[in-house]
Design goal:
Elements: H1 2-8, E1 19-26, E2 32-38, E3 41-47, E4 52-57, H2 69-81
Antiparallel strand pairs: 1-2, 2-3, 3-4
Length: 102
């Protein structure tokens, strides 16, 4: 999504860290509402398959305290591939694999 926005606005140097998506919300099958950070400003934009609209400049920035969910998955996948993490389909279950529900 960020790459699409950068191409649409002809922004180069994506690895510079000056433009990032802070929050994203699906508004339909092909529509999203995004909060992007450009420098030290945050903007609310609407993105569709045909258009990108600037909706507002946020006066109070949204904090981005948690890491993206993909990072957690990436770390777990790397641990699994290294053999340091065993798969567990239902981590909350205390049953043994051979037991059945009655």
């Amino acid at each position: 999504m960020l790459a699409f926005i950068m191409r649409r606005f002809n922004v180069t140097g994506g690895s510079s860290g000056q433009l990032k998506v802070v929050a994203s919300l699906a508004a339909g099958t092909k529509e999203r509402v995004l909060v992007i950070e450009v420098g030290d400003e945050q903007h609310l934009i609407g993105v569709t398959a045909q258009n990108i609209n600037h909706l507002a400049k946020l006066d109070t920035p949204i904090a981005n305290d948690k890491p993206p969910s993909g990072e957690n998955f990436k770390d777990k996948l790397n641990l699994f591939m290294a053999g340091k993490l065993q798969p567990n389909a239902n981590p909350g279950s205390k049953r043994n694999a051979g037991e059945r529900d009655e």
